[in-house]
Automatic annotation (TrEMBL):
GO function term, MF aspect, one: DNA-binding transcription factor activity
Keyword Metal-binding recorded: no
UniProt xrefs under InterPro entries: CBASS_pafABC_assoc_protein, DeoR_HTH, HTH_11, PafC-like, WH-like_DNA-bd_sf, WH_DNA-bd_sf, WYL_dom
All residue ranges annotated as the HTH deoR-type domain in the record: 2-61
Name of this chain's protein: DeoR family transcriptional regulator
Keywords of the record: Transcription, Transcription regulation
Classification lineage: Bacteria, Bacillati, Bacillota, Bacilli, Bacillales
Organism, as annotated: Listeria fleischmannii 1991
PROSITE patterns: HTH_DEOR_2, WYL
Length: 306
């Protein structure tokens, strides 16, 4: 839209002294003639645009122009670029790429200040390529108010076919979710993208319903597991995993090699599988119901290989 482009041009020229018409045309994906018309529009709006001829010339805003340039400082833009760079790994749409390019170009004049002190890396998100394709398809469907049809595996392994009005995408704890209105259920539902077996974006459009982004809560019928305190003996590798992933009560050194940790785990297969992920790096020290359940779970696994 023109108004968005004009705002973007003003922001760009407030950050950089001179920008060529060619560069702006590439950044905003319009012709040079359109850029020159935009300059005329900005001049009519009392924004003092000037041009400098020559190889090193370009378009600029008079330095005396009184605008609070702190609206978006170099630090602000750097923070936005950092966030978008991380988000791009989860959702590599053309819109994100274009926005990143524009932001980075705005920072060129302050190159010495653009070294990021923080970076985000989501490259290890499981199923990234396949999920990314679904995310991008759903994002476009949401924008265009198009129905989607999905083949979906629920948490009990039952396959269902749903026609859905998509409204919102949510990324939580390494997983993508779709919030939408299920025509079959006549209610809003949350779908985990990794459970979608097949996705079709339909040409049919819908009139959006009133929708408020819903906090992520497990379904009411989802079983609530007994949570127990479990004492663990950990080596250094196990300590790292527990600190990052577990509901930790306390952890303290046992000696120069091992650590004692008290954690909260569900007395259920989910808790047992979490502990199995730690392999030989963790040992249960407390013999309670969790210990008995975990041992029985191991025995069931061993039986499958006899």
């Amino acid at each position: 839209m023109k108004i968005e482009r004009l705002i973007g041009i003003v922001m760009l020229l407030l950050q950089r002294e001179l920008v060529s018409a060619n560069e702006m045309a590439l950044m905003f994906e319009v012709s040079k003639r359109t850029i020159y018309r935009d300059m005329e529009t900005l001049s009519m709006a009392k924004i003092p645009i000037y041009t400098m001829p020559g190889v090193n010339g370009g378009i600029g805003i008079m330095p005396t122009y009184k605008v609070d340039k702190r609206l978006l400082t170099t630090d602000d833009l750097t923070s936005i670029v950092t966030s978008l760079s991380g988000f791009e790994q989860l959702f590599s749409s053309q819109e994100i790429k274009k926005t990143l390019l524009k932001m980075k170009n705005m920072l060129k004049s302050d190159q010495e200040n653009t070294d990021n002190l923080i970076s985000l890396d989501f490259s290890n998100v499981t199923g990234k390529k396949e999920i990314n394709e679904h995310v991008e398809e759903l994002h476009l469907a949401i924008k265009k108010h198009q129905f989607v049809r999905i083949s979906y595996n629920d948490r009990d392994g039952n396959e269902t076919n749903r026609k859905v009005e998509p409204y919102h995408l949510l990324f939580r704890n390494r997983y993508w979710y779709l919030q939408g209105y299920s025509i079959e259920r006549e209610d809003f539902r949350t779908f985990k993208l990794s459970r979608i077996l097949h996705l079709d974006v339909l040409p049919e459009t819908f009139i959006p319903r009133e929708f408020v982004v819903k906090p992520f809560n497990p379904p009411k019928q989802y079983p609530v597991f007994e949570m127990l305190e479990v004492d663990l003996l950990l080596d250094r590798t196990g300590r790292e995993q527990i600190i990052e992933r577990a509901n930790l009560i306390e952890i303290k050194p046992e000696d120069q090699t091992y650590f004692l940790a008290k954690v909260i785990l569900p007395n259920h297969e989910a808790g047992y599988r979490f502990l199995l992920n730690l392999g030989k790096h963790a040992t249960i020290k407390s013999q309670n119901e969790f210990y008995d359940g975990f041992v029985a779970y191991l025995e069931d696994i061993q039986m499958k290989y006899q």
